[in-house]
Structure formats: structure tokens, C-alpha cells
Amino acid sequence: NAGVTQTPKFQVLKTGQSMTLQCAQDMNHEYMSWYRQDPGMGLRLIHYSVGAGITDQGEVPNGYNVSRSTTEDFPLRLLSAAPSQTSVYFCASVKNTEAFFGQGTRLTVV
Amino acid sequence: ILNVEQSPQSLHVQEGDSTNFTCSFPSSNFYALHWYRWETAKSPEALFVMTLNGDEKKKGRISATLNTKEGYSYLYIKGSQPEDSATYLCAFANYGGATNKLIFGTGTLLAVQP
Predict the structure, then answer these.
(1) Is A19 helix (H, G, I), strand (E, B) or coil?
(2) Is the predicted pLDDT of residue B17 greater than 80, yes or no?
(3) B24 and B71 in contact (C-beta within 8 Å)?
(4) Residue A45 sits at the chain B interface (C-beta within 8 Å)
(5) Cβ-based neighbours of A86, under 8 Å, separated by 6 or more
(6) Are B56 and B65 a contacting pair, CB within 8 Å?
(7) Which strands form B5-7's sheet, in the order they lie side by side?
(8) Tens of pLDDT, residues B23-36
(9) A94: nearest CB among B100, B105, B106
(10) Nearest chain A residue (CA) to B105
């Protein structure tokens, strides 16, 4: 059972570089979301999608873009990385309010 | 912005102690309240989903209660064991937007000393 697959697990970027965090789920869930986790801040919602072709902003969307061309995939793009985006990122697929998380991506921007 | 608060922020107990944490959430337009267990270097895993006022859920030594009228939930661990050490997150969903949109609290970090 693959569930939610998130890649990469670790990444180091230089300030100004761009990258895409990949997230794929095989459970046919309509709802997917991206969170970032920072010390003392819990999980904060970046962007979410209620289905293919539909995305919306969460609590901390600045500096991130998303798209949802298929039900399975929900990539998160950093267009110009900043040190403030150093964090651990989690993708989640949600069904009936139960969240299934990817393995997390530890991103460091230097 | 909806606010979900958890207390305490961290807790250190001895093996065998019983403990409990609190999650506070907005009481209006309530849809569901979740508890997740999050071990270091792993992904959060669901413990309980509660939707009705007065709900009580139990899984082994861990149980949870829900009061939607006053906007709080308690998580109890009876006879804590070192393997219970983790961060416990609660997450709230309401009818105000997408009902699968989960707002997480900051978590309670539990450390159980053998």
C-alpha cells in the first residue's frame, strides 16, 4: 500500500533557487494539502486542493505555488527559495477528515 | 484565522504515570476533531476522529473525550510507557469551508522516562 508518497526526503537549496516538492497519493482522495512544520508552530497549512483543477490558499501561502492537474498529484513549488522557508514540509491526503501524511521533506535554504 | 490551542506545550512523566492533555478549538460550526500521534522522524498517524458532542474514544491505554459546546477535547494516557513518547496533535475541521481542511494545534510533546 503506497498511500501518500512525498519526495525528496531531504533538500538543500541556495537562496533564490527554485524547486518542486512532489506528492502523489493512490487512494483516490479528492482533498490534498501541504503543511509546513516549524519548532513551536505545529503544522501550518500552506495550500490545499478539494479536487483536480481546484486549489486554494491556506494560512501561510506566500512564496509557494501549487497545481492540481490530476487527482493523484499535488506538487508544491518554491519559485525563489528564501531562508525563511527552511522547514519540514508534509503533504497530506484527506478523506472524511482523516489525514494520511507523506514521509516529510526536510528543506534547508542557505 | 481559526485558532486551535493545545496545552501543555510539553510534559515529562515517569513510566506508569497517567497523564492528560487539552485541545481547545472554536465551538461554532464544528465538524470534527482529530487526535494524531507524531513520533520523531516519522509522519503523524491518526489516533481518533470525533464528531459528536460527548464522544468518547478508546484505544488500549489511550482515550479521548469531546465537548463541542465549550470547544475542548481531552486526551488521556493511562500508565504511560516510554513508547508513548511522542508529540500529540489535535486537528479541527469546521463547516465554514472545506470540511477536510484541518487546522492543527501546536502539539503536546510527551516524554516518558523509564
Answers:
(1) strand
(2) yes
(3) yes
(4) yes
(5) A107, A108, A109
(6) yes
(7) B5-7, B19-24, B72-77, B62-67, B56-59
(8) 999 988 888 999 99
(9) B100
(10) A42
